[in-house]
Amino acid sequence: MSGLRERLAGNPLVELVTIVAMALALALGIQAVIVKPFRIPSVSMVPTLEVKQRVLVDRVSYRFSEPSRGDIVVFKPPAGADTNTCGDGQKAGQPCAKPTPEKSETNYIKRIVGEPGDRIKVLRGRAYVNGKQADEPFARASADCDICNLPREITIPPGHFFMMGDNRGESADSRIWGPVPKRWIVGNAFTTYWPPKRIGTL
User: Fold this and answer.
1) For the segment 104-129, what is each residue's pLDDT rounded down to a tens digit?
2) Does 121 participate in catalysis according to the annotation?
3) Residues 6 or more apart from 140 whose CB is under 8 A from it?
4) Is pTM beyond 0.70 here?
5) Can 110 be counted among the known catalytic residues?
């Protein structure tokens, strides 16, 4: 038996298979715990992120720190996102104030525009936070979509974050299905790695 092990240990093919298997296990472990690749599925983050562009998501940092306004994050939205439903019935002229209690199993990517305790309203596609228009040079504003003008303020509940796509006229987001609990945030999208011409930090 020891002779067989020695022969296998010296076999280049066995060594190659072992190295590939270890590399694959390491890559899967990193994806599961530390960094996750994510493919942009829709136009909701244009012009910041294009359809089919790929980003890397940091799954660790939010375990030790709080998400911040302006962060681009991957998350599980409320189950209401699957049916464009607000948790408490959306009132006219007002963003959704309360999400459904269950979460969807679909990953979304949006930008945080409101933190716990912030007051939020939307005018002409622009977020107004605590009475002031947010500084949003990245946003593609729109004044003529159904959820681009929501002048009645809501207050974001504790432990929740208000998400919006940068492409304000083409994004289904917290305006429709409400703020997202921190525990449903997968991580922070920190860099884009594909296509090569758009490699860079976010």
Assistant:
1) 999 999 999 999 999 999 999 999 99
2) no
3) 46, 47, 125, 166, 167, 168, 169
4) yes
5) yes
- CA-CA-CA-CA torsion sign (142, 147, 151, 157): negative
Exactly one of 44, 104, 171, 174 is catalytic; name it: 44
How far apart CA 18 and CA 186 sit, in angstroms, is 31
Q: SS3 sequence, 71-127?
A: CEEEECCEHHHHCCCCCCCCCCCCCCCCCCCCECCCCEEEEEEECCCCEEEEECCEE
Nearest to 78, CA basis, from 184, 202, 191, 188: 184
From the candidates 36, 76, 98, 110, give the one annotated as an active-site residue.
110
The residue extents of the domains of the chain are 2-32, 36-201
Domain covering 36-201 assigned CATH 3.90.79.10 in the classification:
no
Question: CA-to-CA distance for 51 and 111, rounded, in angstroms?
Answer: 16
